[in-house]
Design brief:
Length: 664
């Protein structure tokens, strides 16, 4: 539809176009009104959509405050020597302070060869390597040292790292490094070609091996315990030690001091069955003597008795046994003294304990026997695979340039000796992964505690989302605002007639103000007791306080969180009937309330936007229909004005003819 009007063939002498335009502009006011109403509906839908988005965000935030993501169990770690160690903690980490002394970090095997010319070539062939129990095969077609290095790295899956370092402008050095850490995880050469090539490159020289494995069998075992029964060997060839058992393992030959001497032994403990540990008491038996009398159903029968005489039940008190926990399992006997190896990290898992003998015995000492004992009242000890070896002569190779010897991480935790093959240890403290970077110079501390700042931040974010949705609804409905804010007296919220929204605000405010059951009763039952209220800042009158906007005092919250961690968690979500389902609390009630508004399709917000969509659709139909009416009316007007102007032209032409006749 055009804004102006043009009638072909007419000169618009009588202002027909302007007249039609004025008529149509008057009629278009209704169309403008319809369009404006449509835009108002679109704006309203936008508000409802934004409100739903805020409500969903608040609902999700509420769910995280009482579900498995609840922040009240968030933990952090504090290391007194972050250059030496740190810790990653999970939510189930045990809170406490631990003493840690790191003797050494776990290391890989790293070896280097001699200086080689830049044009040094490696012959083709099959090369075999081994690290611990893992074997690697490298098929090399021959070529430069760089080509060989890349081939080893690729075929080993980067378990063997390689470096070709230019030590001078004319020479180079080949370096091998294992990516597998731990005692005994040496890089070794497993076939003749590999041994020859690496010996030629100056990696090693041949030497005699020293590796003594001692079977824990009757001929080597002497019972030193009070119970002189024979030794017990399990199906997996473990020596079994029950409570107070003590055995001496006689070594077939004395073990002399060596710089690289290592002792290993496999130990594990299992709990004793309660019935076995407390002892068995024979029950009282029946008496078959027939004499006396018996009363059956109030009838006294002389000269008879029950078939058996069952004595009255007497509860048998089990003798109290003092519980003893002793993690000192091993001692060494040398030509000079007896050496206890202290508390050891032993549990129900098979574990190989490794001891660096140069830190235990002196150069003039030899080890003649090993004492194994179990003083625990509730554990059985299993020992096997006793071994002494020289790590510097384990493979029959003495490495000429050993940059790093493979070793376990060695540390003490609260005095308990710990050995692990990795510098990332996740089985020492529940929920804690210890990361070792370097040895410590003294005993340091690791503290595990709740992350109070993070918890306070999460609570502040939750309250912030509550404030946002409350402020949004108050502004759009103008609930009570005209009483407090001068600027609000001149405007009305676009959703001011929606009483359901006003009801939502009231319900949310009630949830935040209500008391909730916790284990601490009235001492801890509402938000104001943990630093959350409408007047935490004590700034006097503020209109926003009358609208339910809350403030958080982080310092007061943290103070109360330190005092009542479990209670504050219950305040936001609590299982009051013991069915393992949350059924009470601020966050629980908030999430449950908002679900009725945010549920897809059937929730209140979607029902409003769906209704608006229908109204917009009807409005579009009305607009289209009215446009058709206007088009028809405009067309009719054009035809009428065309006929009128044509008639006027004909009259004008007739008048001119009569005027010409008169002149003649």
């Amino acid at each position: 539809m055009s804004d102006g009007v043009y009638i072909p063939g007419l000169s618009n002498k009588y202002g027909s176009s302007e007249s039609i335009k004025k008529i149509m502009d008057s009629k278009r006011k209704k169309l403008d009104k319809l369009e404006k109403e449509k835009e108002i509906l679109k704006d309203e839908k936008k508000i409802w959509s934004e409100l739903k988005s805020k409500a969903q965000s608040f609902q999700n935030s509420a769910k995280k405050m009482y579900g498995f993501e609840a922040p009240f169990d968030d933990k952090l770690s504090l290391s007194s020597d972050e250059a030496s160690f740190s810790a990653n903690v999970s939510r189930n980490a045990e809170i406490g302070e631990y003493r840690i002394n790191i003797k050494k970090k776990a290391a890989p095997h790293k070896i280097a060869g001699a200086q080689l010319e830049k044009n040094y070539k490696i012959q083709s062939g099959e090369y075999l390597f081994k690290i611990g129990d893992e074997n690697f095969k490298v098929n090399f077609g021959g070529g430069s040292l760089d080509d060989f290095a890349q081939k080893i790295k690729k075929d080993s899956g980067e378990k063997i790292k390689t470096i070709v370092a230019n030590d001078t402008s004319k020479t180079q050095v080949f370096i091998l490094e294992s990516s597998i850490f731990g005692d005994g995880k040496f890089i070794t050469f497993e076939n003749d070609l590999t041994k020859k090539v690496f010996k030629d490159m100056g990696f090693y020289e041949e030497t005699n091996t020293f590796d003594k494995r001692i079977a824990l069998e009757d001929k080597n075992v002497v019972n030193l315990s009070e119970n002189k029964r024979g030794s017990v060997i399990s199906e997996d060839n473990s020596l079994v030690l029950k409570t107070n058992d003590r055995y001496r393992i006689n070594l077939p030959e004395n073990i002399p001091y060596k710089e690289g001497l290592i002792m290993t032994i496999d130990l594990k403990t299992l709990g004793i069955d309660e019935a076995e540990s407390s002892g068995k008491v024979d029950p009282t038996g029946p008496d078959f003597t027939r004499e006396g009398s018996v009363n059956i159903y109030d009838i006294e029968i002389e000269g008879e008795s029950s078939l058996v005489d069952i004595p009255p039940y007497e509860k048998i008190e089990k003798p109290a046994i003092e519980k003893i926990v002793d993690d000192k399992y091993i001692s060494l006997i040398t030509n000079r003294r007896t050496i206890s190896l202290g508390e050891l990290d032993v549990n129900s898992e098979d574990k190989t304990l490794t001891f660096d003998m140069k830190e235990i015995i002196a150069p003039d000492e030899t080890v003649s026997s090993v004492i194994i004992n179990n003083n625990n009242t509730e554990k059985v000890l299993f020992a096997k695979n006793l071994r002494f070896y020289d790590k510097d002569a384990l493979t029959g190779m003495k490495f000429r340039n050993e940059l790093s010897s493979p070793s376990n991480a060695s540390l003490t935790l609260d005095g308990l000796k710990i050995d692990r093959e990795s510098n990332v240890i996740n089985d020492l403290i529940k929920g804690v992964t210890l990361n070792i970077f370097d040895k410590t110079d003294r005993e340091e501390t690791l503290k595990i505690d709740r992350d109070y700042n993070k918890i306070a931040e999460s609570v502040s974010d939750f309250i912030g989302e509550y404030n946002q949705i409350l402020d949004f609804i108050n502004n759009e409905t103008n609930v009570d605002a005209m009483e407090y804010r001068e600027e609000d007296r001149e405007k009305t919220g676009k959703l001011s007639k929606d009483y359901t929204l006003r009801s939502l605000v009231t319900k949310l405010r009630v949830i935040m103000m209500n008391p909730y059951p916790t284990d601490f009763g009235v001492e801890l039952s509402n938000l104001s007791q943990i630093g959350i209220s409408t007047n935490e800042s004590n700034k006097g009158f503020d209109a926003t306080k009358m609208k339910g906007i809350l403030e958080v005092n982080p310092d007061k919250f943290i103070e109360q969180m330190e005092k009542y961690p479990a209670g504050i968690k219950q305040l936001f979500g609590n299982d009051t009937d013991g069915d393992i389902l949350i059924d009470s609390g601020i966050a629980y009630e908030t999430e449950r309330l908002l679900k009725a508004y945010t549920t897809r399709d059937v929730g209140y917000f979607d029902s409003k936007t769906n209704s608006i969509d229908n109204r917009i659709e009807n409005q579009n139909k009305s607009i289209d229909s009215y446009k058709e009416v206007l088009d028809k009316e405009e067309k009719d007007l054009k035809e009428k004005f065309f006929k009128m102007e044509k008639a006027a032209q004909e009259l004008e032409e007739n008048r001119k003819r009569f005027d010409n006749l008169d002149k003649k």
